[in-house]
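FORM 7B: Structural annotation worksheet

SECTION A. Query
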Amino acid sequence: MVRNKANKSKQTKRRRSVSSRKGKEITSSEKITLYLNEALSMENAAVERLKLRIKQTKIESVKQRLQLHLEETREQQNRLKQLISDVGGKNPTKDKAQLPIPWATKTMAKMIGRMMTSAELELKGTKEDAVIENAEIVLYDMLMQLVERMGITNTISVLNQSLSEEKAMAEWIRTNAPDVLMQLWPEIEESITKRE
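SECTION B. Predicted structure
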């Protein structure tokens, strides 16, 4: 019992203030709020992208899975806002992060515009979905490790729920990619034949 109090006292001292690179004292509440807002900004951007992808996709199973993940992402936003409030943070961010989508150069973008069919653009969107989901997996995994090290363990189960949803979406994309390609292949094949 005495040992737990001693450990708790050390954690409390560690949580009180942390020095930033500029020497300003930052509380653990401010630090974790920053990390949670970073995750929230990514989810804010993901909501916008998911809405766009739902409108763009021609494949009904993809549309349904994206719709489900949009609902999950909105719940993730709500959970992050609640965590920010729970740790004493104020004003959850409304900012949208720049999603980690590989961008083509201007020359490549022109070629893509001229040469890619709508089916190929759908495949490109699926690849981008996979990149984003895997980035979110890393984000949540690191965030869970950070809060554990900071002693803010009451947030782990909530973050783990979001991590599980992101893993499930990434796995769905990976598992269904062959079927998506099979459905899109006739249009892609037809465009190849026309060009030859």
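SECTION C. Observations
Residues 62 and 176 are 9 Å apart (CA to CA). The beta strands are 18-19, 25-26.

SECTION D. Sign-off
Analyst initials: ____
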